[in-house]
Amino acid sequence: MPARYRPETILAQAGGAVDAETGAIVPPIHIATTFLRDPDNQYRRGFAYGRPDNATVRQTEAMLSALEGGAASLLLASGMAAATSLFLALPRPAHIVAPRVMYWGLRKWLVEDAPAHGLTASLVDGADLGAIAAATRPGETRLVWMETPANPLWTITDIKGAATAAHAAGAALAVDSTVATPILTRPLAEGADVVMHAATKYLNGHSDVVAGALSFARTEGLFERAAAVRASLGAILGPIEAALLLRGLRTLHLRVGAQCAAAMKIARHFAADPRVAEVLYPGLENHPGHAVAARQMHGGFGGMLSIRVRGGEEAAIATAAGVALWKRATSLGGVESLIEHRASVEGTASPCPPDLLRLSVGIEAAEDLIADLDRALAAAR
């Protein structure tokens, strides 16, 4: 589909693909693991084996590249598989700069497991461009990794500024844009070299696929090495999961728009609630990253927010226990709204306050979600 079309048009028509053999407007699922050689022993059709490549995966990757404005994309078996494959694609030894506030599982991997692979990481305040620049080591830092908005405090990183700091040190910039999605932010257009998504979340949007994605500004260097890592580790996404992801992507713009609108209503309502000590949402004017978010996020500020409950950890856990409509479950980005006490999940090394509840806003009526949380807060007092 020509690049002149808007993202919602590309999404709705799955990139414009029509099956050449049947005329089907829903792309077929290619599940074969092995492919016929030509009589002279070549693979001119472009497929040899299912571990490094798959036609359904390729189609979904092409959609992601179109959305992100990238040269190429890779689908992997999870968000963690995507992130760690990129780290493992770096020339070793490698120094990485990453934020303190980020997905806790990846932060734990960087601190505890990465050194065994010749990787060391310096953790900084992702909102502080000076700290990012100061942490880089010219000639040693291979990658600056940022997450924005960053889970679960929704810290905002200035992507253009981080790209400048990374490139000045000879490093690449990768951005975890899971929460922003390509509907709201396109990190490659802001100067990033790689954008990562835990595609389990918003890109799929239906809580029925575990997947990860990497989109690259260029097809040489990091892309080639990450593709080789994916092939050698067998970390490619399965074809059925890729087809489900493609199906979810077709409504991404509708879901994200509804989730942004509802999240803003919920944030504004509880920002004025005396039972809530603080609402963390970049769409609120008092959020420290609001101005940067307003510049690099277009059409909304995302469907994620956190509230800090007066009364501390006990009151927060009691509030989560008292909801009926919100679901007490991990993950985010689905059509159903989720609530979670993050400190219980992340442990003692987490920067997450014990009074914090993370909210993933779905596509239910915002008024119903507000009323449900209001009743839970009242019961927890």
| CATH level 1 class label of the largest domain | Alpha Beta
Structural class: alpha/beta
Strand order of the largest sheet: 1-7-6-5-4-2-3
Mean pLDDT: 96
CATH architecture of the largest domain: 3-Layer(aba) Sandwich
Can you write the helix and strand succession as a string?
Answer: HHEHEHEHEHEHEEHHHEHEHEEHEH
- Tally of strands: 12
CATH topology of the largest domain: Aspartate Aminotransferase, domain 2
Number of helical segments with 4 or more residues = 14
The backbone outline, from C-alpha atoms, is globular
User: Which consecutive residue ranges, at least 5 long each, have pLDDT under 50?
Assistant: none
Describe the sheet with the most strands: 7 strands, mixed
Number of domains: 2
Q: Identify the CATH homologous superfamily of the largest domain.
A: Type I PLP-dependent aspartate aminotransferase-like (Major domain)
The end-to-end span amounts to 55 Å
Strand content: 15-25%
Helix amount: 25-40%
How would you characterize this protein structure?
It is a single chain. With 381 residues, the protein is of the alpha/beta class. The longest helix has 20 residues, at 252-271. It has 14 helices and twelve strands. The N and C termini lie far apart (55 Å). 37% of the residues lie in helices and 16% in strands. The chain has two domains: 7-249, Type I PLP-dependent aspartate aminotransferase-like (Major domain) (Aspartate Aminotransferase, domain 2, 3-Layer(aba) Sandwich), CATH 3.40.640.10; 252-380, Aspartate Aminotransferase, domain 1 (Alpha-Beta Complex). Helix 12 crosses helix 14.
